[in-house]
Amino acid sequence: MSNPYFFGYGSLVNLATHDYHDPQPARLRGWRRSWAHTTLREVAFLTAVPCAESEIDGLIAAVPNADWQALDQREFAYDRLSTQNAVQHGMQQSPEISVYAVPQVCQQAVTDQHPILLSYLDVVVQGYAQVFGKDGVAEFFASTDGWTAPILNDRSAPRYPRHQSLGSAELQLVDDHLNALDARIIVAA
């Protein structure tokens, strides 16, 4: 029996945030990314949303011995769903692959009470830059909905528990994309 895999499309693309085995680029058909706002968490976070016309790049990695407990705990506000062979990857075998998504019934409208943490976004963009390059970062921003949410600049005191140090070029890459989106940045209190 082979190990199952997860498809990560946010912070799980950044290999510094986990140590799951056999990570490799992949593409999920029939889904988009969106910022989720819910009472399950204090801040907005990424979710996968079914969308027949869309595809998103991400990373697959093995979950040894199907021990989902640690990953399910990390992704506590999500449901773990089968991708039903919608993931394109370069592996010879076709393992079971799951994706995490916030249940639609738990999602709410965008509010200032649930901002996007810049420290979280930095980690996501760093991962996409490392795996997919600058074009992959541009595709991440283009294939993600919900950029009207405020972005809380917490870089000086990161609130995201798996935050990473970014170099000046990486920070500028994030900032350039946010400027192009005319994103609303708010300062942490």
From TrEMBL:
What are the Gamma-glutamylcyclotransferase AIG2-like domain coordinates in residue numbering?
A: 7-104
- Identify the keywords attached in UniProt to this record, alphabetized: Transferase
Query: What Gene3D superfamilies does the database record attribute to this sequence?
Result: Gamma-glutamyl cyclotransferase-like
Q: Which GO terms describe its molecular function?
A: transferase activity
Please, which domain of life does this record's source organism belong to?
Bacteria
Descriptive protein name:
Gamma-glutamylcyclotransferase
Q: Which organism is it from?
A: Parasedimentitalea maritima
